[in-house]
Design a protein that fits this description.
The complex is a heterodimer of chains A (245) and B (446). With 245 residues, chain A is of the alpha/beta class. Chain A is built from nine helices and seven strands; from the N terminus they run βαβαβαβααβαβαβαα. The longest helix of chain A has 28 residues, at 100-127. Chain A starts with a strand and ends with a helix. The model of chain A has no long low-confidence stretch (mean pLDDT 95). Chain B is built from 13 helices and 21 strands. Chain B has helices at residues 29-32, 86-93, 111-117, 124-127, 155-161, 196-209, 266-279, 291-295, 327-338, 378-393, 407-413, 417-427, 436-441, and strands at 6-11, 18-25, 38-40, 59-61, 68-71, 77-81, 98-99, 134-140, 146-150, 170-177, 179-180, 186-193, 212-217, 229-236, 253-254, 284-289, 301-302, 313-320, 346-351, 365-373, 396-397. Chain B has an eight-stranded antiparallel β-sheet with strand order 16-12-14-13-19-20-18-21. In chain B, strands 5-6-10-8-9 form a five-stranded antiparallel β-sheet, with helices on one face. Chains A and B meet through helix 1 and helix 2 of A and strand 1 and strand 5 of B.
């Protein structure tokens, strides 16, 4: 496997990258903070990634960086067959309601720009004969819920986009894996009270890697969230209006 | 997120004391330590060493700063961020034939914590404590300066930081050499011995031939049986001795909930000690052991501190100079028994030479560690009496385990404290970096 990872310096991205490194895969990292990136690359090399781990500058808030970054990854890896996108922004609903500028940034990062990045990645994967595109969406996109209206809306759009990709391109060899994390203890959720079934990045990464290997189009992590979301999807509107989750 | 502090309930492994504190946590440790008054790793120190001085003094949680930064596969020299856990390190390196030069009794500790506590292990009589093997440290000082220190640069700061309980600066990176090992397995010989003399003589004798030794002692046995126990000696197994099957990691279990307080009483502890002693049915036993079972027997049970219930527990560990005989240790055990102390796990280990750390625990003699549940009235008195004995014998206590010692007792047993304080003041005149432990023992007040 030759994998490009966008956002592997932190949280779940870091955990996925470490599992891939331990298997001896070839990796290329993309992020906006180059110093962090170099440190992460050294870490993955020591943990067993094959050859030097390449790095490239790529900023989720600057779509013009996407194509050159993937271009560079393709050159260094001599083609890639897997792309994992964990980069994203998160903010609490109250903060977003107060700050329109932050809202614009979050919507752009989590929907528009993530989709633009996936489009660039998709073209290159298809040109190379297919592969796996694994993108972290969220259970927040499953239903319009009070605490995650804006973030959830962006993730809902992203999930639909990935579903569409899967329908159209699986037959020609592009597998799309849409990861839907529930509550996972990362810097994104630091300070929030963990609900039941809160997961760790390491456990999430193991499950995600299995999904990538098997090409499953959709994976809930940690696994109990599949059941939880199944119930929430079925709740009628008058219930959703009353509850606060 | 992440860069904002959040409220959290904090406690050491003994779950006493428990406080509410503000926590910064981020993958980018250097970015958050500036706002924090203390760094804390996995919180495996037993008492208040990892707790903030008060509810308004934020701590920096280092556990996400867990990247390996450089590794030389020829010399074994490793540089890593302070939050890398020994567990993680073992998973990466043990099957590749490398191991830390010194390992404490649990792998759920961070490298930063290992340096700040200057941990020791079963091989202390040969290798000294962890600090002896630390080549360099990268620190963030109280005034925000980032500094490298080692035996040759900022030597005094280096010596004060090793075993300095995180009070001299936030440890950001640790550099030390891993040791090559012939196989991931351990050859272990153990012996059931009937009294304290046999145990201490056994430790002394084994020290010459074995790189790793430790003894478990039944601290509830009395009279002639006082100090009976099991002596363990170990070394890394050669390739020929190692089992043919593939090396795999041990399965871990979890204590699902906090036990009610009555579960642990004198009778149940006595039963446990008896069972542990007689589980070793043959007098001698020898064979290959899994490294996790040998080094980290309690790590197989996650959250085992919940067994002690709501009140929590403490561990008392001291080292007693025993140049001529084991009489000081005997007096300690007799005092402990006569004060009504009872504990599950009582571990005796011989210590080698004193290290470079200015406040490091180990010194030549015999170290004894015993766990006991916290009792709202009795525990303070028990620790006070034990401390008085330790002062009389010229020994000292291990700060990493401590939650009850009084400042005057600590000063009496620690002649090196003045020089530590002087260096600490030089780098941090206002004592901006502080912990609940430093408030209690070093007189940091507001």
């Amino acid at each position: 496997m030759k994998a490009v990872l966008f956002g592997a310096s932190r949280g779940m991205g870091r955990a996925v990258a470490r599992l891939l490194a331990a298997r001896g895969e070839k990796l290329f990292l993309l992020e906006h903070d180059l110093e962090e990136l170099h440190r992460s690359a050294r870490d993955l090399e020591i943990r067993g990634a094959e050859g030097p781990v390449g790095v490239g500058h790529c900023d989720l808030l600057q779509p013009q960086t996407f194509a050159p970054a993937l271009e560079q990854a393709q050159r260094v890896l001599e083609g890639f067959d897997t792309v994992v996108v964990t980069a994203g922004l998160f903010a609490l609903q109250e903060e977003l309601e107060r700050d329109a500028e932050l809202t614009a940034r979050l919507l752009a990062a989590d929907f528009t720009n993530t989709v633009l990045f996936c489009e660039e990645a998709r073209k290159r994967l298809l040109a190379g004969g297919g592969g796996t595109l694994c993108v972290f969406s969220s259970v927040a996109g499953e239903r319009g819920r009070k605490p995650v209206i804006l973030y959830g809306a962006a993730k809902a759009g992203l999930s639909r986009y990935l579903e569409g990709l899967d329908h159209k391109f699986r037959a020609v060899g592009l597998k799309t894996v849409c990861v839907k994390p529930g509550f996972v203890k990362t810097s994104m959720t630091a300070g929030l009270k963990p609900p039941p079934f809160a997961g760790t990045p390491e456990a999430v990464a193991r499950r995600v890697l299995k999904a990538i290997d098997r090409g499953r189009p959709e994976v809930y992590v940690p696994s109990p969230w599949r059941g939880v979301m199944c119930v929430i999807r079925c709740l009628p509107r008058f219930v959703m209006r009353r509850v606060n989750f | 997120m992440g860069r904002q502090p959040y409220k959290s309930i904090l406690a050491g492994w003994g779950r006493h004391p428990v406080v509410e504190g503000l926590v910064y946590k981020s993958e980018n440790l250097a970015a958050i330590v500036g706002a924090a008054t203390l760094s804390r790793g996995l919180g495996r120190s037993y008492g208040d060493a990892s707790l903030p001085a008060n509810a308004h003094s934020p701590v920096a949680d280092t556990t996400w700063a867990n990247r390996l930064l450089s590794f030389d596969p020829v010399s074994g020299l490793l540089r890593a961020e302070a939050g890398v856990s020994l567990y993680d390190l073992n998973r990466v390196f043990l099957t590749r034939g490398w191991f830390v030069p010194v390992s404490p009794g649990t792998q759920f500790v961070t490298l930063g914590g290992m340096a700040a506590s200057d941990v020791h292990g079963k091989n202390h009589h040969c290798e000294g404590s962890f600090g002896e093997h630390v080549r360099r440290l990268k620190l963030a000082l109280a005034d925000g300066r980032i500094m490298e220190c080692s035996d040759t640069e900022e030597r005094e700061l280096f010596r004060a930081t090793i075993g300095g309980m995180g009070l001299t600066g936030h440890i950001l990176e640790v550099e030390f050499s891993l040791r090559p090992i012939p196989s991931p397995w351990v050859w272990c010989e153990s012996e059931r011995l009937d009294d304290l003399d046999a145990i201490t003589a056994g430790l002394k004798e084994a020290a010459h031939a074995w790189p790793m030794t430790v003894a478990w002692v039944d601290c509830l046995a009395r009279g002639k049986k006082l100090g009976r126990g099991i002596l363990m000696k170990g070394r890394w197994a050669e390739i020929g001795e190692a089992p043919r099957r593939l090396f795999s990691w041990k399965r871990r279990w979890r204590v699902p909930f906090q036990f009610p307080g009555f579960v642990l009483n004198r009778a149940s502890m006595k039963l446990f000690n008896l069972a542990y002693f007689w589980k070793h049915i043959p007098r001698h036993r020898a064979g290959v052991m899994h490294p996790e079972a040998f080094f980290y027997p309690l790590d197989g049970l996650d959250d085992w501190n919940l067994i002690y219930g709501r009140r929590g527990f403490t561990q008392y560990q001291c080292v007693l100079p025993c140049e001529t005989d084991n009489a000081p240790l005997r007096r300690f055990l007799e005092l402990f028994r006569s004060l009504g102390g009872s504990g599950f796990l009582c571990v005796v280990k011989d210590c080698g030479a004193e290290g470079k750390g200015l406040l490091s625990f180990p010194r030549p003699g015999l170290s004894i560690a015993v766990d006991f549940p916290v009792h709202p009235r009795k525990t303070q008195a028990l620790v006070d009496r034990l401390n008085e004995l330790v002062i009389e014998e010229g020994g000292r206590i291990y700060l990493t385990k401590d939650a009850f010692t009084r400042a005057e007792h600590f000063r009496a047993m620690e002649p090196r404290l003045e020089s530590f304080n002087a260096i600490r003041r030089r780098y941090d005149p206002q004592a901006r970096l502080r912990s609940a432990l430093s408030v209690r023992l070093l007189g940091d007040n507001f």
